[in-house]
Amino acid sequence: MNCLSGGINQSQQVAHSREAAERANPRLKAFTVLNPEPFRPTPELPLDGLPIGVKDLYDTAGLETAYGSPIYKGHVPEKSAALVQKLCDLGAYVVGKTVTTEFAWRQAGPTVNPYGVDRTPGGSSSGSAAAVAAGIVPLALGTQTFGSIIRPAAFCGIAGFKPTFGALPLEGVQPLSGSLDHAGYLAQTMELIRKVHGLVKGNAAAASEPAVKNLRLVKGPWWKGASQEQRDVVLEVAEVLGAQGVAVTEAELPEAFNRCQALAEIILFHEAAEIYRPLIDQHGDLVSTHIRELVEKGEALPEGACQQALAERDVLIELLAKEMEGFDGILSLPTLGEAPLMTEGTGNPGPCVAWTLLGVPATTLPYSFGPAGLPLGIQLIGKRGEDFAHLDISVAVEKLLETRAHRRAVAARFA
To answer: Please, what are the domains in the chain?
Structure first.
């Protein structure tokens, strides 16, 4: 695989990432395969020397891409996914492929959380979150269909960004639900995400003085199910931002938005069933129970249920745009609390689902730690199509919260 790379610290940074991946992977289990190709500096490229991890849902030319499934063991694509190729063209170096749950659904891989090896890193972008949190790579690619970027980023104490639906290409990415799938990033800082996304989209100039003036605090239907510590973090962040001049207004969304979870499930079940029924018929013994159940739920839906759900979603998209008028964004939960035990699965994506369904940009930032010593953070939601404004606001919040220093200890342990 010939991905030119370089830029940020160039050869030394790439060498560090490669060595760190080799050392940490036996314990962390974040990578499915490491890139054997040497790094070739190209100083004229803007991301020359940026080591990245690539979720094993993205095709990578010359590197095994198995989509988290034994069916595709040994599968080596000839062409990289469009987003991977774009990053390589900008100079990024692919350190390796990061673990995903099977086809980005619930069958977890072996990756552990760097803050507690008995804890999940979250899913489905498990390896990407762990590799970034452990200091192996500064940035990794993920995907989100329900909560698969925001949740693992929050569980692992890093930054995550899911852009507006369709903002990043999904060509060469294994689908789960065409109406819900998003590409996105997990990184050590929101500033880095802003820089990389700007280069990918041709909008490199961040706001000269990014500012956040007013946020709407939305607790939402998952608030009561969240841990007290997670709720306290969101409320404390509201107070911290308020003390620094940000107006934070608590105001719930209309009751109609409580339908988001049900609508998203209908859409996902239907579209996943169409994609994965042929695979089950052909490779039944190699498909997990999770995928089988997903397909069965989709096939049991009444005719027209998905189309009706999509129509309801479109109404809610318009309603959310009106509800966000006068606000820079929404402050809310990213997860229900600290990362659960590995034996309990990859965590509930509930706090993320509405924003994925509605296709609005969402970011997560770490803030503090819970009683088990695992990260807790916040989620910020922006306006559909205004990704760069939302990223600039998220960078401003990152600076106001000073969320970076706490990652260094865990990075040192693994890298």
So the answer is: 1-415 (3.90.1300.10)
